[in-house]
Amino acid sequence: MQSLEAMFAADVNFVANHPNIPRLLLNALGRTTKSPLKLMMATFIQRYEQRLSSVIAEAQQCGEIRATLDRETAAHLFIATIQHLVFRALIRDELDEIREAAPAAFASYRACVETTR
Questions:
Q1: Rounded Cα–Cα distance for residues 92 and 51 (Å)
Q2: What is the pLDDT of residues 53-89, one digit of tens each?
Q3: Strands (DSSP E) along the chain, which ranges?
Q4: Sign of CA dihedral 93, 98, 104, 107
Q5: N or C terminus: fewer CB in 10 A for the chain?
Q6: pTM, two decimal places
Q7: pLDDT band per the 50, 70, 90 thresholds, residue 4
């Protein structure tokens, strides 16, 4: 679980430190044509989900995450949680807010996936 939390914090800090990247990506995603950036992002997300699935599998083996949890779905939820933080911050035009909201967001993610001991 510590690895997932570290990944979450690193992702949030990256976005907060590079606020123009989410804006650039949203602009590219809004276009109907396939662009090299769209293809690159699809590949990046696919690889990141695979990495997350591996980390989730390790946490399942350690008994930190429920064994019955679907790793792919847990990876999607992880990414969706960060995306929500980014979208909310962009809408409010307060990208620095993402750092403040991240601990509570990860705590909610953890509550969804963690085993009950």
A1: 31
A2: 999 999 999 999 999 999 999 999 999 999 999 989 8
A3: none
A4: positive
A5: C
A6: 0.87
A7: very high
Which structure tokens are listed for 22? 């989410």
- CA-based angle 45:87:6, to the nearest 5? 55
Q: How far apart are CA 90 and CA 26, in angstroms?
A: 10
Candidate from 3-12, 33-42, 71-80, 100-109 with smallest mean pLDDT: 33-42
- CATH class of segment(s) 2-113: mainly alpha
| Residues in Cβ contact with 49 at an 8 Å cutoff, skipping those fewer than 6 apart | 72, 75, 76, 79
Cα-only R_g, the chain:
15
Contacts (Cβ under 8 Å, ≥6 apart) of 114: 1, 64, 65, 66
Pair of tokens at residue 72: 């792919």
